[in-house]
From TrEMBL:
Transmembrane parts of this sequence: 12-31, 43-60
Protein name: YoaK family protein
Pfam family, one: DUF1275
Lineage summary: Bacteria, Pseudomonadati, Pseudomonadota, Gammaproteobacteria, Enterobacterales
Cross-referenced InterPro entries: DUF1275, MFS_trans_sf
Alphabetized UniProt keyword annotations: Membrane, Plasmid, Transmembrane, Transmembrane helix
PANTHER family: SLR0142 PROTEIN, UPF0700 TRANSMEMBRANE PROTEIN YOAK
Length: 92
């Protein structure tokens, strides 16, 4: 939805902003996971990494007009997420 809003405003830096969000998310996940490692199950780490992979895949898919996929694991989930974001963006 952030990319769609940036495209409507002709803001090209919206892609970089999304990559920065992903980087910050990875750093925060690393800090939290190292702090909570003995207490947290691996499921939380897997879910968070899957979300961040999907975010990266969605950004690169939008930048390249669906010609490039950077993560093969979450491709179908990313497509579903892109379409849901488009639907919610239209409804808004």
């Amino acid at each position: 939805m952030l990319i769609n809003a940036g495209r409507r405003k002709n803001n090209r830096s919206v892609y970089a902003f999304n990559i920065i969000i992903e980087g910050v998310g990875l750093v925060l996940l690393g800090i939290v996971e190292s702090w909570l490692a003995p207490l947290s199950p691996e499921v939380l780490l897997i879910l968070c990494l899957s979300f961040l992979m999907g975010l990266q895949n969605a950004v690169v898919t939008r930048i390249s007009n669906a010609r490039v996929r950077t993560t093969h694991i979450s491709g179908t989930s990313t497509d579903i997420g892109i379409e849901l974001a488009t639907l919610f963006d239209v409804l808004r």
